[in-house]
């Protein structure tokens, strides 16, 4: 279907209008229908082994399955959610599990947060579970904006917002940061509404995130650190823990078991029923964009600040899942690297743009850029500088440099 092709110039147009919201909702409804259509059912599935693993006083139940040869409809989808039920006409006791290992096209392992009460003597039916509830939440947020909810966020996206002035901060910024990182950190800590930080490869985005989490927590502010990537969240939390400036008891990671979370982050990971009872006393909470919504679906403004990492690779509706949970936000990413993944080839280009890119164009006074990189040879950095970031002079862009003997 052809969604959103209205010929508008995204460089000058606001991130959202009433018409664009309607187009986004239509596109999300189309995506939801596609997910439902692709849902797969696998009959005659046998349980071949059962065991459990105890992590932080919580049992995780693992079940090894084998698809019978006459039912080889299984397509390998690691980390996909599944429901499984006994293969009886009137048996509707579904159990939700997540695929964590695929040995072959027939053999795989599911993990459950509660005892699925399976038996190796019974035959089961397994179905994939499309993430339609997350898409429904994105649609609901957009509909709420049309009804006047989230007024500040709406005015920012509609381009009618007058940004608040930055506040001079009292905190002393880590002297190990380079001048570009210090400037970005001061802006982010001093914002009253939002700020964007663009970080090309190797410029120390994780270092900035750690510094911001430490300073916000020291103020007593509650931080949601979100991303569409599990590894980005774990890397940032590892940096915060390594800095040893925030009490580990005040840091947590929202997760769904040991299969998506780095091993050294497991001790601070909350799962299942523990999440809501523990969340309120934490100061730094790491989560995927989807898990944040699941943990606190109705708690708008629960967080004082929302930091979204890799924001240049998330769609606008995905990013909103986290932003509606906070009073102000900081987007960190690079829209000159990987764009959001959009499977619909016929949707408009403006739908393919991340919220990070849209706001970067709309509010030039509200962003910083990290210009000093620590990863590449100077010759390679110079090529990238001239070919990818050559037009960003509005943020005092200079050639990326490669310091020696320096840790980021």
Describe the 3D structure.
With 408 residues, the protein is of the alpha/beta class. Helices cover 31% and strands 21% of the residues. Helix 8 (289-295) packs across helix 9.
* DSSP, total strands: 14
> What letter string, H or E per element, gives the SSE order?
HEEEEEEHHHEHEHEEHEHEHEHHEH
* CATH top level label of the largest domain: Alpha Beta
What CATH architecture of the largest domain do you see? 3-Layer(aba) Sandwich
Instruction: Compute the separation of the termini in Å.
Output: 46 Å
The portion of residues assigned to helices is 25-40%
- Low-confidence segments, ≥5 residues, pLDDT <50? 1-11, 73-79, 393-400, 404-408
Provide a quick synopsis of the model.
With 408 residues, the protein is α/β, with parallel strands linked by helices.
Write the layout of secondary structure elements.
Blueprint: H1 18-38, E1 41-55, E2 58-67, E3 81-86, E4 95-102, E5 107-112, E6 123-128, H2 132-146, H3 151-158, H4 179-190, E7 194-198, H5 205-219, E8 223-227, H6 230-243, E9 251-254, E10 269-270, H7 274-279, E11 284-288, H8 289-295, E12 305-308, H9 316-323, E13 329-333, H10 349-352, H11 355-362, E14 367-369, H12 378-387
Parallel strand pairs: 7-13, 7-14, 8-11, 8-12, 9-10, 9-11, 12-13
Antiparallel strand pairs: 1-2, 1-6, 2-5, 3-4, 3-6, 4-5
Describe the structure using short key phrases.
single chain; alpha/beta; eight-stranded parallel sheet; six-stranded antiparallel beta barrel; 12 helices; globular; disordered N terminus
